[in-house]
Amino acid sequence: MRKDCTLTASAFEHFLQHLDAQREAAARKYLSLHAKLVLWLEHRQCGNAPELASRTLETVAARMFEDVLWQPDDLMAYCVGVAKNHLLHYRRELVLRQASFAEVPLHFEAQQAREAQRDVMEKDAQEKRATCLRHCWQRLDADERRLLEQYYHEDWQQQLHQRQQLAARLRLTENALRTRAHRLRAALRDCMKRCEERVCR
Amino acid sequence: MPIKRINDARAAQAAADQEIIHYLLGAMAEAEQAAFETRYFADDELFARVTQMREELADRYVRRQLTADERARYEKHLLTASAQHEEIAFAETLRQVLTESAVTKPRRFSFTLRVLVPRWNLAVAAMLLMSLLGGMWWLWRGQQRLNAEVIALRADQNVRAARELALQQQLAALQPPAPTPVPQVSPPFQQTTGVDETYVALQLSAPTRSNAAGEVPNAPLPVNTHRLKLKINLDFAPRANSLRATLRSADGKALVKSARLPFRCNGNCSATFETNLSKLRPGNYELVLNAIDDEDNKPDAVSYLFQLTAPKSVP
Prior knowledge:
The complex is a heterodimer.
Chain A: H1 9-19, H2 23-42, H3 49-66, H4 75-102, H5 108-139, H6 142-151, H7 156-169, H8 174-200
Helix pairs in contact in A: 1-2, 1-3, 2-3, 2-4, 3-4, 5-8
Chain B: H1 2-24, H2 30-42, H3 44-62, H4 68-78, H5 82-104, H6 108-116, H7 120-174, E1 199-204, E2 218-220, E3 227-234, E4 242-249, E5 254-257, E6 263-266, E7 268-276, E8 283-292, E9 300-309
Parallel strand pairs in B: 1-3, 2-9
Antiparallel strand pairs in B: 3-7, 4-5, 4-8, 6-7, 8-9
């Protein structure tokens, strides 16, 4: 099925050119297509969605580079078709791997020790995350912090009401408020990830 | 109308959100799901909304805001993806940080309580400040009252002085001329007629600081006299180069001011003051002499009182 998953620079350039003549716009479209494929794959309980989405796009790019005169009628639909094939292949591999693992049963104590170790690691990771997020939280503007504090509430009904009031106060539509809050949330998340990477180094 | 439009927009938004939630929780039929996926592959805005809603579901999951059915579907459908585990972990951490931030902030009600609770130190400070302000006001009022009294007393004093002067003039007019000149008054050093008709001359000796009756040298004003000449015998040696003379009327109004009045000292010191008689009328006058030093200061001041009487008819 996968003849060659190594994407050459020329094939990648050709694919980007197909997406858009402008390089920046082409890069944006590539990333958007990748993100949509990740969602599509995750929706099908794929544990390795980002990797499979990349592989899907590489396959499509390679196929288009093989025959430069060929173009899919509907690129999105074609990508989804390729992703389906990769997902089937991935699942088959997963089943085979799980079967081989099942042949070597873990000793009870070893299994317990592994779980305990995983708990400790998870706790460590949680502490690191919290420290980094606190640091990133302090780097936000006071207005941004206030917006997020008011955007979230423990009670759902109260939260809906509070968001309506907040949108009215900021003279925003509720949709615009949601977009702004999610942008701030995404910025916090990126900051936290970068911080975690620095701490882990 | 705007409220209806807002409500309609909210209803439409809620329906769109519900569709996304159905998709994310795997509650759609296969055909519906495929159609929805085709839509978000073609529509970037819808895809952004789906991404936002996925984050929102994670936030609602950690805050236990999902219904039991939604929660079960979320765990079965979304929590299998490792990316969603990360989303949940982030949502948990964000919730923790938001809670800490809310706890560390002073709450509004605690502020209100702080205002309501009596603060004795503040009360004492306020009382001290009030007392200080009150004391300053009282002192200021007292000063104002004293100033008003001083002004009233000065006015009263001026009225009394004017009355006394008027009485003296009346008394002088009623009494016959004294047979002998008063001791301080020297005889005119020049005749008012004969020698020089243009002068009326008076010789002033000891400075008269009070205007007691009978102590004031006087001279009659002849009809054809144009100038007044006063020879002043100074009973002191001025510590100055020259003198400055000011002629005042009985009410204190300065009538004539001389720039510099020279004086001579041959044993006793004397000076001569001359002025035009045209503005002078019978009455009491005061000549004030100021000694002027090199730096134009006025260290000494002496005043002489004299009287000009009504003109006598010339035979």
